[in-house]
Amino acid sequence: MSHYGGGYGGGYGAPPPQQGYGAPPPQQGYGAPPPPGYGYGAPPPPSGPPAGADPQLWNWFAAVDTDRSGHITVHELQKALINGDWTPFDLDTVKLLMSIFDTDRSGTIGFNEFSGLWKYIKDWQGVFKHFDRDRSGSIDGRELHDALKQFGYNLSPQLLHLVERKYDVEKAGAPPVHGQQQGPPGISFDRFVRACVVIKTLTEAFQRLDTDRDGWIQINYDTFMHTVLSAP
After folding, report:
1. CB of 190 closer than 8 Å to CB of 95
2. What pLDDT score was predicted for residue 6?
3. CA distance linking residue 10 with residue 214, whole number of Å
4. Of residues 46 and 127, which shows the higher confidence score?
5. Which tens digit of pLDDT belongs to each residue from 102-132?
6. Model confidence pLDDT, tens digit, residues 47-101
7. What's the angle, vertex CA 230, arms to CA 20 and CA 189, rounded to 5?
């Protein structure tokens, strides 16, 4: 038997708002394309964007599509996404984003899917900047608490500590990558997005099982494993 919320407010968390908080983020920053020469492939083809497409976004898509296949793989996408401190996105986060926007389940994303992914990242930029109140470029424990609380996720202190330890690169004990710039202490933009999406997904999975809405469920082993393994 499992109980959600640990007695700290209970209730189910609402998903983050679609639009970001605060002022619009600058063009260069969290999730922005890297500067020229940073993971870019060949220049975009001369054919131009599809009808109605944002030419700038098309040029970036074409530059990221290094094999000119018309679709972007997870590794091509990882080379294209960087945090505000110029560290590349964590591969697990890139895979999560791919799973959300790969609507045809092809294992790659086309331009339309890429456009949706880019808007999603831009929306999260505003959320991240709103809660990064000390402008450190990362989310610390207090900022994480404030963010999740505002989203409606009333996690216990023990769960908050677990989330922080899991998604903070240093606290998770992730080895530094040779030659790669290390970001500031705390949870980076890419990992913050992943943490929020995972918490939202698990909360919604619990909600589907908690049919009487009392904050308790009773499940067998197979259901538990299926719920956990289906999470991002």
Report:
1. no
2. 41
3. 9
4. 127
5. 988 899 999 999 999 999 999 999 999 999 9
6. 667 778 888 889 889 988 988 898 999 999 998 888 877 788 999 999 999 999 9
7. 30
- What is the rounded average pLDDT for all residues in the chain? 79
**How many domains are contained in the chain?**
1
At 126 the pLDDT is 93
Host H or E run for residue 77: helix 74-80
What's the CATH code of the domain at 145? 1.10.238.10
Alpha carbons 171 and 193: distance in angstroms, whole number: 17
Gyration radius of the chain over CA positions: 19
The three-class DSSP label of residue 217 is strand
DSSP 11-46: SPPPPPPSSPSSSPPPSSSTTPPPPTTSS--SPPPT
Cα–Cα distance measured from residue 151 to residue 13, given in angstroms and rounded to the nearest whole number: 6
131: containing domain: 2-229
Q: Cβ of 210: how many Cβ atoms within 10 Å?
A: 17
Residue type, 33: P
Q: What is the rounded CA–CA span in Å between residue 101 and residue 92?
A: 15
- Which residue is listed with tokens 């500031």? 184
Q: CA 194 to CA 117: how far, in whole Å?
A: 14
Residue with tokens 């207090």: 142
